[in-house]
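Q: Here's a chain of 345 amino acids. Please give me its 3D structure as tokens.
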Amino acid sequence: MPGGKPIIGITMGDPAGIGPEIIAKALSRRRIYSICRPIVIGHSGSMRMGIEVASAKLTVHPVKDVKEAFFKLGVIDVIDLENVNLNGLEMGKPQPMGGRAAVEFIRKAVELAISGEVSAIATAPVNKEAVNMAGIPFKGHTELLAELTGASKYAMMLIHEPLRVAHVSTHVSLREACDKVSKDRILDVLDMVDEASNWFGFEKARIAVASLNPHGGEGGLFGLEEVEEIAPAVKAAQEKGMDVKGPIPADTVFARALKGEFDFVVAMYHDQGHIPVKLLGLERGVNLTLGLPIIRTSVDHGTAYRHARLRLGTANPASLIEAIKLAAFLCGRKGVKGGASPNMS
């Protein structure tokens, strides 16, 4: 097996979604093979369907082990888990088989990453409803990855340059999200952001912390979280030597970051952080999980069942391409075996 470039394990995601199509499109690009050695963890038949929908000139090479992969442009290596019955799969619809298969792809990818057989993983989209239909309690990729790797402290970071937004909470109700705004949790996220900033080449990153309440709470008039939890966390981070400012009203902090005032923003809950990033466009956004013992990136969009059902070949692979590029880049920055520092332009 050739050496040098990092091996990126790409999970196929829900076989009834656009995962196979966007993987086919991404792995049609010579650029991907110039920076890494990609291998898909999924199902060969589903990948062939994805290739057909994408109208790509590719073949599938089923393997049982990473060592069997060709890593050759024009051939998609697939660690085939043989867990999808195409005759019983209905494209563009949440169903137990698709949800179960998607989780099995993730479990296998994590196993390969922990063992060092792949340098990092990049994940195609899954559907929470489909996974739960399979009888598997599932809130999201991030939570499952933390469970599989034994990570006790973790966070989601969405990246769409120049915005890099980490989240204090993600897949919980808004009411529960407010309860999760605590000094300790915010400080944990700041520690993870500070560590991640080194991977991106920042010697001392400028980090902004968003407020929870309108107008930053107005000194307690609209809520006490800023006074009792957020500000103390910011102060504690500053005492650790971080360049942190906040709490800053959420209706201005992202605009300030876009203008170049901050390198990272810490959002208090899911939609507070997701909306500004997704306003920049779903096409190039990437999800990076902080706090794991492995490198994991992901697309910043869902299964797009409608696209998959219509089989028009119109699904955009840009987010997956960016996720693969970021995974390869981070392998070099973090010194992962087989890692390189590819040009990210």
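Q: Can you summarize the key feature?
A: Residues 1-151+292-345 form a domain with the Isopropylmalate Dehydrogenase fold (CATH 3.40.718.10).
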